[in-house]
Amino acid sequence: MMKNNNINGCTKKGEKQQLESNYHVIHKLPPGDSPYVRAKYAQLVEKDPEGAIVLFWKAINAGDRVDSALKDMAVVMKQQDRAEEAIEAIRSFRDRCSKQAQESLDNVLIDLYKKCGKLEEQIELLKQKLRMIYQGEAFNGKPTKTARSHGRKFQVTIKQETSRILGNLGWAYMQQSNYAAAEVVYRKAQQIDPDANKACNLCMCLLKQARYIEARSVLQDVLQGKISGSDDLKSKTRAEELCKELESFVSLGYTFPSPQLNLEDAFVDGLDQLINQYAPFRSRRLPIFEEISPCRDQLAC
């Protein structure tokens, strides 16, 4: 009888452990009962962002999974419209994080700067990321990295990352109404890894400079499905709207002031020369950043 009780006890204990394991998997919670685990529980299960932020702070101060705690806390703060606070938290505590976490923290910072409208800081950090690619420091020295989007994992190459960064840089210049600089950056991004979204942004830059023939040519590539993402309904709709806007400007004979060069344009000019060095991959560093010593001094990054 005693033996059967022991067996039943072990069985119930095993079932409990299995249920707990399944619970953590379903809610994507890490195992254990540390401050970080409790913070994730508050965030994902209890849907208590303010409580989660308090627990993330405790995790950071306790040295519990600091890399993840700082990044997750900043994301939750952004969702709570506390982006400024999140920026200060990353600046203050990122020195406690590992070297491997710095790149992802930079990505979070870029999103926070964008939400706060801190364009200068956003541009500077994007240029810093380009410099890291040139120096071979991106992806912690590896040719690819694993990224996540909506719970799915996928591989990103340095080539794709460079195009993405240039796209973000172009958008930041557009927010400053620096369409000449944004145009050059978008053109370089399209040379590396073209897509319909950046093509539409490039078209807008050309429209703002009253260069209608070039703008129409860029739009045709999207409408005719010549580049990646052209079949996306959102991109196609935007291209059609830009086409109507273009025809309206042409019919009215509308013109825009000529863009003026500034220090940021000097950076873009250096980038223009730099991208022209593009060649097939020969090393882990992106080849467009190789053999550019003659124009390195022109880069403002």
From TrEMBL:
Record's keyword annotation contains Coiled coil: yes
GO cellular component: nucleus
InterPro entries cross-referenced by the UniProt entry: MS5/SDI1, TPR-like_helical_dom_sf, TPR_rpt
Gene3D superfamilies: Tetratricopeptide repeat domain (1.25.40.10)
Main location: nucleus
Keywords in alphabetical order: Coiled coil, Nucleus, Repeat, TPR repeat
Top-level division of the source organism's lineage: Eukaryota
Pfam families: TPR_1
Sections of the chain in a coiled coil: 76-129
Keyword Aminoacyl-tRNA synthetase: no
Subcellular location: Nucleus
Placement of TPR repeats on the sequence: 163-196
SMART domains: TPR (SM00028)
Family per similarity comment: Belongs to the MS5 protein family.
Annotated protein name in UniProt: Protein SULFUR DEFICIENCY-INDUCED 1-like
